[in-house]
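Hi support team,

I'm filing this because I wasn't sure whether my run with 5,6-dihydroxy-NADP finished correctly. The job status page said complete, but I'd like someone to confirm that the output block is well-formed before I use it downstream. Pasting the exact inputs I used:
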Amino acid sequence: MLTFNFYRPTNLLFGEGKIEELPSLVQKSERILMLYGGGSIKKNGIYDRTKKALAGYHLVEFAGIEPNPHYETCMKAVEVVQAEKISLILAVGGGSVMDAAKFIGLAAKLPSGSDAWQDAVLHSHRRQDAVPVAVIPTLAATGSEMNAGFVISNVGLTEKRAGGNPLVIPQFAIMEPSATASCDLRQTSNGIADAYVHVLEQYLTTDKGETLQSYWAEGVLKTILQVAPKLMANLADLEARAIFMHAATMALNGMISMGVTSDWATHMIGHELTILYGTDHGRTLTIVMPNLWRVRREIKMGRLAQYGRNVLDLTGSDSEVADAAIIETEKFFVSINMPIKLSQADIPADAVEAVSAKVAKRGDRFGEDGQVDSTMIHAILTLAK
Ligand code: NZQ
Ligand code: ZN
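And here is everything the job wrote out:
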């Protein structure tokens, strides 16, 4: 029987020229931390527009959030939030900056002497207080603009782990597709792959049959398949940027997973590849997912066949369609310049042992049924060499 809680209070402002509406969203009394990364926002004009819109506000900047945000850097921002009594963290950037803001929002409210890695990442769901977050996304991929999740890399521990808490769901998200137009081919491809895999992590499970959620998921997948070639042909195609940005948000704002099981094993394995080898998040996913499907083909047969028929227009028996769906998905990843083998992403073959051993040490089991253990991961990555 369908049952779920769905809470997404994010005020979405989508379209061009929305940054100038900031004063209508932010009380004059707010003490704002403007958080950003390595400076791409200074090259594409978003920095200047944001600063101009917030002229007259108490605003402190914190730059330098890395891709795959580092715990160590975020903790420096926590000190600034506490010292400056910040009341709103405004993340201006991609998923890494948005995720950092969420973690910082939780960590800044921890009692002094806490272990922020334990309390605001690994057990983040227990937090009862946070500095509110708002975002201006500049890279369409993660859906972080409208969800409670974040992923932080502890460089000292060589761990990249996910956290989440409804308190840090962005209060508002100002989504201007043109802000993403300065993303290069690599980042654009990474984003397309990430959003496409997000949908599949929630749809291609051991569930069977049509539901509202499965039709929604198939619609997002078809939209991404339709718009991806347009972006590959012309990164400046603003119409395509808008369609994809919308799809990426809907891919991971919780709508398509209402009341259904989700997999996420591909992501869990991907995070280990990123923290060990520095591989872009999206590039880990296109290597892992098709090989995970090959290893889990029998148990996922129903949804692989449904995905093949309803999204990829494949015909034949369930078994034929399932196998063709895996191949066609790899062809799509290759068409957006993504790797489908470890070697194509400069990941050494010994990653198979390294990742399996890391997961075995933690005793983790992933997947919609908790069956993806270190032995199965070893098999998946062996196929991906
Ligand atoms: O350093 P900056 O200036 O921000 O440059 C970034 C960075 O170098 C650049 N970039 C961003 N917007 C740009 C731009 N360059 C030119 N023009 C623009 N408009 O792109 C590089 C990558 O940015 P990043 O934020 O790291 O990329 P993405 O948005 O793909 O985020 C990846 C992070 O999100 C996490 C991943 O694990 C990874 O850490 N994820 C977050 C999720 C969530 N919160 O729900 C789910 C995802 O599965 C994912 O795990
Ligand atoms: Zn992802």
